[in-house]
Design a protein that fits this description.
By secondary structure, the chain is mainly alpha-helical. Helix content is about 80%, strand content about 0%. The chain has one domain. It is globular and about 45 Å long.
């Protein structure tokens, strides 16, 4: 298995586990426009990340998993925007981290699409 596939799956699995182990920070960045409880969205997104990670490590589902990862990275972008807005008055280190997440989504989407192309 290629190193980039393993790394992408590990990133998603780690984040997915984090959604269950420490859901509070994730709850706080769920956009208020979403219906229902933020905790529900935290758990759903964590489960999605774990499912996508599992799909990536199976050769038969790797392409679909990588495309799902790209979609997931796009789907969570509003949470990153909310975090950046909420933290605009936070200490500089926190503010920098929140702002850095915004452009980081682009290389993550690109990475997932590259894995999808290589899985053909």
């Amino acid at each position: 298995m290629k190193r980039d596939v393993i790394a992408l799956a590990a990133l998603l699995a780690t984040s997915g586990i984090g959604h269950f182990a420490r859901p509070g920070p994730f709850d706080r960045i769920v956009p208020q426009a979403l219906p229902g409880s933020p905790r529900t969205w935290t758990y759903l997104s964590g489960a999605a990340e774990l499912a996508v990670a599992a799909a990536l490590v199976r050769p038969g589902s790797r392409r679909r998993g990588a495309l799902a990862a790209a979609g997931l990275f796009v789907a969570v972008f509003p949470a990153n925007v909310k975090m950046a807005l909420d933290w605009r008055h936070a200490p500089p280190v926190y503010r920098a981290a929140a702002y850095a997440r915004l452009p980081l989504q682009v290389p993550l989407v690109w990475w997932a699409l590259r894995v999808a192309r290589s899985a053909r």
